[in-house]
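User: What would this chain look like folded?
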Amino acid sequence: MRRYPVEVSRGGRLLVLRAGEIKDLISYLKVIQNPDDSVSLLRVINTPVRGIGKTTIEMMERLALETGLSMWGAVGEAIKRQLLPARALAGVEELSRAD
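Assistant: Here's the prediction, encoded as structure tokens.
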């Protein structure tokens, strides 16, 4: 990917996607296809920045383990139970609406 960057046209402008951006795009597509893909979800959970930090992710991972849910299920459960600080809750709600 580094040797042959991917060029896309957007609004008449030519953009060059870097390897990380392509991996993010693939991860978003994987999460859309399978919301229970926790590895892909962890890659894009805060891309773009949503105020979801390490502590919030760790809390949701613990919740997923305790409840037997996937990470995506833990996102929904955290929203339902209002378990997060306001900023993180807003970011998690934004992520869940993106689905």
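Helices lie at 19-33, 38-44, 54-67, 71-81, 86-98. If you want, I can go into more detail on any region.
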